[in-house]
Write a structure and sequence with these properties.
The complex is a heterodimer of chains A (242) and B (326). Chain A is α/β, with parallel strands linked by helices. Chain A contains seven helices and 15 strands. Chain A has a five-stranded parallel sheet, sandwiched between helices. The longest helix of chain B is centred in the middle third of the chain and has 53 residues. The chains are: A alpha/beta (242), B alpha+beta (326). The interface between A and B is medium-sized, with 26 and 30 residues.
Amino acid sequence: MIRIIIIDDEPLARSIVKEYLQHRNDVELIAECNDGFEGIKSIQQWQPDLIFLDIQMPKINGFEMLELIEEPPAVIFTTAFDEYAIKAFEINAIDYLLKPFDKTRFDKAIDKYIQQKISQISPVLETAAQSPAQQNRVVVKDGNKIKIIPVSQIHYLEAADDYVKIVTADGSFLKKRTMNFFEQSLAAYHFVRTHRSFIINTQLITRIDVHEKDSHLVLLNTGAKLPVSKAGYSKLKEVLGI
Amino acid sequence: MWMGLQFIILRQLNIDQAHAAADSIASNTLLAISCFFMSNNMKYYLPRQEKYWYILIMSLAASLIWLLCLQGILWLIFAEGDLYLQYLKDTWGIRFGAGFLLISSMSMFSLLWYSQQETREKDIRKTESERLAKEAELYKLRQQLQPHFLFNSLNSISALTGSNPEKARHMIHQLSDFLRGTIKRDEQQWNTLEEELEYLQLYLDIEKVRFGYRLQTKIIFAENTLQLKLPALLLQPVVENAIKFGLYDTIGEVLIKLVATSDHDGLTITVENPYDPETLQPPKGTGFGLESIARRLFLLFARQDLLSVKKENKKFITTILIPQSA
């Protein structure tokens, strides 16, 4: 039995998946969710094999929801848009169903999942996609709560082992991502990697001091003092135009 | 006229009739040909840079050619040794001067005339191309708002055909009416608020089927606003924007409120949706599709101030003013 959860904010969109599932005897629907928050809870509670996931949903979209799950199940996306297809395959989704889809296409998607499982090409979801789920914000888990941080509210980011510490006025949050990921995705928002372990919001810089030979210290208007490496300093100079 | 004038002058200078007539006719006919040539030249080739030098040189050359031709013709007409030929030689300076003046002013006049005509044609072309570009842009702006809605509605219908065929059929009819309204509206530019609200209601009904209990709507209007006119298909994208914004930025029930009022400035419509102040980014958070609506209003009215947004008590309010021309 393939244990399945449907996550979609439109009741009728869920009901059609449900209907198609009823025609099969190798699947078991264990939960239906209205949005990504319910989705996270359900997935953690039930550990499904496969989820049907809509992309555009309230508050956090499908990709952002996946980012917040430690070991996400296999995913089949269901959406009216084809603009996310590339991103869906980037994170190793099983399939991408364009609404409205018919039963044949739907069955094909499930069969694809079964095939991958049999042939042991472990359908491990690659949550560390190359591009962020949504450009101008970062979604993090804060205890049991989910927090959406607009990029402009980030002061700086600091490397912390497998995680990156995101420092904001409301405190700091950890996210399982690499510094390289953030360096690339935040480059368009005035962020510069000034050091191996730091990426800073250049709009908050008040002062840059010489620290030692070949290294500087940057002072943010929040009071934070952060190190700048030699390479980081030349990047900073380039961005600030000095 | 010039011919007569020259004839009289020559007569006054005690030149006999035959000589005077021949001279006048020859010189003025040649002059007319020169002027015609210059003018035609301007018609097909308008000098851009250094046009005054061009005219000066061309006119000088034309006058010279004219004078030489005239000499030649008169030499042919009158026998050798005629006294008049000597006289002709003595007056070449004044002839050249007069010819040059006439030809150059003719050229100048042609230049002005033709360049003015060219500018006028260019203006007409420009207005025309601007109009076409504007239409294309408006068309594109309207189209942008459809596909997402269409595919999701079709998906809902697909779901209903299994569970509730009667309702599925009803929704197909609503969707058809809505789409017909969209297509029909492309051509007629202005509609009354009453017509637009009817059309909007079709849209809202479909969206309510899609989103179920989550979507609530409320439309309030003053009686006297119903006959006021507004651009077709303007309201629906604004409401669509409010619905998307409200539904995707909050969890739970969403109330979309539309209020229409009128005053001496025109028809004012406000559309209200809930939002979450914590996740909305203050500077950029004007919603999804309002830029294109603002652009459309600008194209229609050439005013930038007709669409405004404000955030109040967890409500995002979009206000549109539609000026009512008398």
